[in-house]
Design a protein that fits this description.
The complex is a heterodimer of chains A (about 270) and B (about 425).
Chain A (H helix, E strand, L loop, with lengths): L3 E4 L10 H6 L1 H16 L7 H21 L10 H28 L1 H6 L6 H27 L11 H25 L3 H14 L15 H4 L3 H13 L11 H22 L2 H4 L1
Chain B lengths: L5 E14 L7 H4 L8 E14 L3 E5 L6 H8 L7 E7 L2 E4 L12 H11 L4 H15 L14 H13 L5 E5 L7 H16 L3 E5 L3 H7 L2 E6 L2 E7 H11 L3 E3 L2 E3 L7 E2 L3 E9 L8 E4 L3 E9 L3 E12 L4 E6 L8 E3 L2 E9 L6 E11 L3 E18 L32
Parallel strand pairs in B: 3-7, 3-8, 5-6, 6-7, 14-21
Antiparallel strand pairs in B: 1-2, 1-4, 8-9, 10-11, 11-13, 12-21, 13-15, 15-19, 16-17, 16-18, 16-20, 20-21
Helix pairs in contact in B: 3-4, 3-5, 4-5
The chains are: A mainly alpha (about 270), B alpha+beta (about 425).
């Protein structure tokens, strides 16, 4: 005897149905596959773009900030190495956040025509940047070695940090993608957030440039802890981030849980308002 | 019936939409007024419906009656505002052909993407992949991006995926109205299999013939409520009686729900095509004049009426227009009541399908009532006396053959 599903008007807050989400993991896989193959199909330089983007940005920042403006480097590595690692991580995070935020509205055709756990959409959207991260990370590693900076053993923990970053991006993405369905302002907010984030995160300048008094507030940005931890994993002379690491871990947890609940509440109306 | 036999039970279902209020709005527009303005619109209200396991049930009704909203509630795309739905078994939804297809992806990739979107597991698609491809008949183009497919190929592949959805309950909306005739037959065959395979199907279509063929029972949804329920033929008959332009031979009945441009002062009720013997027909023999009889119900007096009769070829191109004032004939003065107006058309139509647009206007330029494609008929390539035209119709170019006179004379050498 098959199960009977009862559909009644939804009221109040409901827990996200993780069981259903898991049942649709194959859909997430094919959505990721679609996005990855579409993005680089019919582009001249293909996957090279994922590598070129952080490289070119690092060159620009190295020339103008590192060389002309004499912005100091950190962790005892040459400025180009410092800026490149920052760029690789920041591009990964910002793209994951951007893709997740845009994902629901971009899938409006599907949402109106067929039911599936809507949360599959932002989840599938954050994964392609994680795939792009791999070649970018490897190139940055080659550059670092060319500058004679040998990574310490904790480089093996990079995948863990990549996952933590993904969780932060997904947590924010769940909130923004649900809001985006009703308030298209979000579309304008995200690029702005990314631009601001580039300045309030130690990407192209070291953490200790920020005055001690401002550091506690500065560190509330989860990406500060991520960047500091990332450099600790890559550069032998970078310090252990210590308590700074707690911020991204805690924000990932809080953002994911609240984001999933908010998304679950908002998704009911997706088909009607999107 | 015992509850074990029921696949779908809907009770007191209602779905409210808010009209006029912005659906997606800017945050700034929301600040300062808490609730979005707009009035409520109940797309469904108080709907009760029960479908037994293995039953194939049709939903009929005009556009906007709530059929699609009902399917969307059943398929969880949109939540109900009130009432309760119980579904026993796995549910598959087919609201359009090609849901989730991406033009840049190959046929193979799209089968997997579309299949998982419709709720299939990857392993399930693996298992049925060959079957899907065989049904679609596009084996050779599996690795080609579907943007290079003809629309026929695209539809065939998309339907093939959907047709292999292995669910207990299948909710289908209009998807059979696509593809060429041969493929439609194939789709119907598949739907017959599905129906006979013991699966429960809820089927929405504007093609009443499709509903009649596939469904044993039907619901007529009107204004968001169930207007009638019962054996398909009875429900369809009731619905037809009420609504729609339905053509029987050469007589089209123009119901109140036919799309039209109207002021309400005049209503076209009936259009008939009459042959030489004054009998209705939907076939015109080659070169034979025919008569169009139009019945208008006039509610308000019309002092300066002009009837327009338009003839369009199968592709929708208007190929001829005649009006009641052509040749300096006077305008029509019509008092309230029913009037039959006849027009005899003397034109040789080339073989093919034609449709008639019928309208009444006032000379001052106001359209009182206008119905497009009110009647469809076929122009034959056989003349009244049985002789075929001397031109062999390998390909028919054009739609009309005006009378023509020909002459041949000696021409001088080119200057």
């Amino acid at each position: 005897m098959a199960d009977t599903r009862v559909i009644v008007p939804p009221r109040g807050w409901q827990a996200p149905n993780l069981r259903e989400l898991w049942d649709y993991r194959d859909l997430a896989f094919f959505l990721v596959k679609r996005d990855v193959s579409i993005r680089y199909r019919q582009t001249l330089i293909g996957t090279v773009w994922a590598i070129l983007q952080p490289l070119l940005l690092a060159v620009v920042f190295s020339v103008f900030l590192g060389h002309y403006a004499k912005v100091p480097s950190g962790a005892g590595v040459p400025y180009p190495v410092f800026a490149l690692t920052g760029m690789v991580m920041w591009l990964y995070f910002s793209q994951a956040m951007q893709f997740a935020s845009d994902s629901t509205v971009a899938s409006r055709e599907l949402i109106g025509k067929v039911w599936f756990p809507r949360m599959v959409i932002p989840i599938a959207a954050v994964l392609p940047p994680a795939i792009d991260f791999v070649p970018a990370f490897l190139i940055a590693l080659v550059v670092q070695l060319a500058y004679g900076v040998v990574p310490p053993v904790q480089i093996l923990l990079v995948p863990v940090l990549v996952v933590v970053t993904l969780m932060v991006a997904l947590g924010i993405g769940l909130w923004l993608s649900a809001l985006n369905v009703r308030y298209r302002d979000i579309r304008l907010v995200v690029p702005f957030l990314i631009m601001v984030g580039l300045f309030v995160t130690p990407i192209v300048y070291p953490f200790d440039v920020v005055p001690d008094a401002a550091q506690p507030i500065y560190a509330l940005n989860p990406m500060v802890g991520v960047l500091e931890t990332y450099r600790w994993m890559l550069f032998p002379d970078a310090g252990w981030p210590g308590a700074l690491l707690a911020i991204p871990l805690a924000s990932a947890a809080v953002l994911l849980v609240t984001g999933a609940w908010f998304f679950t509440r908002a998704e009911r109306d997706f088909a009607d308002v999107i | 019936m015992s509850s074990e036999d029921v696949a779908i039970r809907v009770s007191g279902l209602g779905k409210r939409y808010r009209l006029g209020g912005a659906q997606t709005d800017l945050l700034s527009e929301r600040i300062g007024r808490r609730a979005p303005k707009g009035r409520d619109f109940w797309a469904l209200r108080g709907v009760d419906l029960t479908v037994r396991k293995g039953e194939v049930v049709g939903l009929v009704g005009r556009n906007g009656a709530g059929k699609s909203t009902l399917l969307k509630c059943l398929s969880r795309i949109t939540p109900p505002t009130e009432g309760r739905i119980e579904l026993t078994g796995r549910v598959g939804t087919l609201l359009e052909v090609g849901t989730g297809f991406h033009p840049e992806l190959s046929g193979r990739e799209n089968v997997y993407l579309s299949g998982t979107i419709l709720g299939m597991r990857r392993a399930e698609i693996d298992r049925r992949f060959d079957e899907i491809v065989a049904f679609s008949g596009i084996e050779r183009f599996l690795e080609t991006p579907v943007k290079r497919y003809s629309s026929g190929m695209y539809v065939r592949l998309a339907f093939a995926v959907a047709a292999h959805l292995d669910t207990d309950i299948l909710l289908v909306d209009e998807v059979l109205a696509v593809g060429d005739a041969e493929f439609q037959r194939k789709c119907f065959g598949k739907m017959d299999d599905v129906a006979r395979g013991g699966r429960t199907v809820v089927f929405v279509s504007h093609q009443l013939s499709a509903v009649q063929r596939l469904c044993t029972r039907a619901y007529w949804i009107d204004g968001g409520r169930v207007r009638a329920e019962g054996p398909t033929s009875e429900v369809v008959a009731q619905y037809l009686h009420h609504a729609g332009a339905t053509q029987e031979g050469g007589v089209a009945t123009i119901g109140p729900d036919v799309p039209r441009s109207t002021t309400g002062a005049v209503t076209l009720e009936r259009v008939a095509l009459l042959g030489d013997d004054d009998r209705p027909t939907d076939r015109v023999e080659l070169g034979q004049p025919f008569t169009v009889a139009m019945t208008f119900r006039v509610s308000e007096p019309v002092p300066d009426g002009v009837v327009e009769l338009g003839l369009s070829s199968a592709d929708g191109t208007r190929v001829a227009t005649v009006q009641s004032v052509d040749g300096g004939r006077p305008v029509l003065s019509l008092s309230p009541g029913r009037h039959e107006i006849r027009a005899r058309i003397d034109a040789t139509l080339l073989p093919g399908e034609f449709t008639l647009d019928v309208g009444m206007h006032r000379l001052i330029g106001l359209t009182l009532d206008f119905v497009e494609r009110a009647l469809t008929f076929t122009a034959l390539n056989v003349a009244h006396d049985g002789s075929e035209d001397r031109w062999p119709w390998v390909v028919v170019r054009g739609a009309l053959r005006p009378g023509s006179a020909w002459s041949v004379r000696e021409a001088g050498a080119p200057a």
